[in-house]
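User: Hello! I'm new to structural biology and keep hearing that structure can be predicted from sequence alone. Could you demonstrate with Putative NBD/HSP70 family sugar kinase? Please show me the input and the output so I can see what each looks like.

Assistant: Of course. The first part below is the input, the amino acid sequence of Putative NBD/HSP70 family sugar kinase. The second part is the output, the predicted structure written as tokens.
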Amino acid sequence: MPHTPTTLGEPAHRRAPDRGRSLLGPALELIHTGRAPTRSALTAALGVTRATAGAVAGELAALGLVAVDQHPIGSSRGRPSHRLGPATDGPVVLAAQLHADRLSVALVGLGGALGERVHLPLPDRTDPQTLLNELAAAGAALIRADRRRCLGAALALPNPVREPQGTAPAALIFGWPGDTPAAALFADAMAAQDLGPRARLPLPTAVANDANLVALAEHRHGAGRDARQLLLVTSGHLGVGGALVVDGRLHTGSAGLALEVGHLTVDPQGRPCPCGNRGCLNVEADPQALLAAADRTPDPSRSLLDQARELAREAAHDPAARAAVDKVVDRLALGLAGLANILNPDRIVLGGLHGDLLAAAPERLPEAVTRHSLWGRCDQVPIVASALRAAGLVGAGELAWGPYLAEPQLAVG
């Protein structure tokens, strides 16, 4: 089944409803992101009467998406209000993620509720069809084993994804052909699976860049909540990615390829990058770079990210590890300062290994960013670590939930 082009990160609560337009989408978005935990909060956020908010919450409950606590609680004004939240037995979506060294799948409910994760090693062949078929098979097994209805599936890829075609123009990690039709291949792989009796058929699918999806997840459910201009920079198992969320919506550029921050040069004489340049942030501030700075040979039987995180923690008592962390932190700071000069974010969230580097150098990293940033000298940007477990999978869940957050009635199709 052809994939449906999806606009990333367009929150319903940011789009003021037209006269007569259904309030279901904006209301579900508010409950999904935790901004309306009670009926009174929903009333205030939507700007409607209590009766209207109650009717909207009731309709979302009838759709099986929201739970309304029938026992009112007191409010600051002394008027009781009903708690609102995602229905614990409501539908789910499948989130899949392709890493440089493994595959991951999980089911995700509303509210970013992440189910048990399943991790698989990479198969011997890493061509797109083989990898996406493996992910689809693992995801289908989860869907069949769960009693809840599955409404969609989305995939986080560690490379740029062109919108709206869903192609991967430069899959540098696995050496895929240019403009690999990743979205179409993933849709075909899911369509070929036995999804059991409770999945929506045909199952809607979508594909996006993993850093974009991490940023979306952190903005809605994690360390980026309430930021107006959120810059996310992250390093997972290999390389560096980044994304920008502006007023609740991902900035993806004219074709979905914006914010490839990993290819910002921070050392012209540095390590060679797969893109053809030298000294890109992509190869100067990722797990391989940290291990190389400490003269550590990676253990091929273990995750690069896990090994780099251990090294970052050792900086507290090991001088060699301390020196390696400081070197990589300084490179990362140069990149963040350059991005801050251009983008002027009001918050920077660091994911993956970069969160560990911030923990290992909580003063050095922000000070270096401030020193090298024009705006940082007069208006220091808060730098915080990501807050979500498996943010890439949570973000893939956000992508799959997107159509239903905009039009909740689709959940009963």
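User: So the tokens describe the shape?

Assistant: Right, they're a compact way of writing down the 3D structure. Reading them back into a model, for example: The two ends are 17 Å apart (CA to CA).
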